[in-house]
Amino acid sequence: MRKGLRFIGIYCYATWSKSKNLKHVGAGILTGFAAYSVSKVTVQAAQTDLHNYVKTFMAEPITAVDTLQKNQNDMKTKMELLVMKAQADFCKALEELETDKSFKVDRWTRKEGGGGITCVLQDGEVFEKAGVNVSIVTGVLPPNATQQMRARGKKMGDSVPFFAAGVSAVIHPRNPMVPTIHFNYRYFEVKNSDDTTQWWFGGGTDLTPYYLDEEDARHFHKTLKTACDQHDPSYYAKFKEWCDNYFYIVHRGERRGVGGIFFDDLDTPSQSEAFQFVTSCSEAVIPSYIPLVKKHKNDGYGYHERQWQLLRRGRYVEFNLIYDRGTKFGLYTPGARYESILMSLPLNAKWEYMHEPAAGSKESRLLEVLKNPKDWLGETKSNNART
Predict the structure, then answer these.
(1) What are phi and psi of 190, to 5 degrees?
(2) Residues 183 and 205 sit within 8 Å (Cβ to Cβ)
(3) pTM for the predicted model, two decimal places
């Protein structure tokens, strides 16, 4: 299952009687969270027929299925199928926790090239707002984006054609005892003037609790470390530190949450191996998070806990709008779809002037960890992470 697209999927189909939303089971890119089982039918390769496989997605892919079928060895195809499957898996796992709410599926196109599928669930019993977005975008890099990439060491001229594929999700639960999760995995490719290609992967998964449960944090980090260790034992420590440094609200002197992993510009050891690593990371999202939701979704809370949750959401908004590189890239891109870019913002948030939690409180305990990131698994920190 880890040697190219033809091994990405288990393409047998069965009815899943527990869900009105999923009528066919296409195992596709399997996650570590076993939400269903498949019959013992002969496993067939993905290249047999994508037309059946894409029926398991939330919507039709942005690229025509026939085009994907003809170009299955192209990394652009592999990544589009990966992000579409990651979106579908996660949306269906979240819907299973709701009683009568499902995702609104909004498929959109972009006149400059490409488009996306935005899935949003609002006002649920468990999730106040959950957004899972896929974008498959092509065109010419705008000057601001080119400048940003040159600042990161990319060598490129002006008016560079590009392809970008990514999946991004932010989940804002209703209960303050349930943490927020964010994940984003993406692939970027540019065509140079000499007809050579530059490519790289990026992404990560991070957790933002409102009340600190150290057992939850250890479970979350352990799941991500397991995914990293399949590919390189040095990845977790390096990307954990990178995550702590990246999700830093400078003007507050605190991190957004308890971290996870984050990386960018990944173009080693090979394109295929980098893709397999990103696949493992995306597969780790559901087992890292869904058990935490199930554990806490019925916990008791009151007005005080809700107000703290709203204040912490305000910090989330500050980071996304001021510092997040992906948000800024999206806003700078011609033909940007602002509804999809800003889906990460919570339905409700709050800003209170000069708020400080009481000393010794549960709120101050969380703040201490946000100001001083913790080594949850006893790993040796890397000195190679980038901010």
Answers:
(1) -130, 150
(2) yes
(3) 0.83
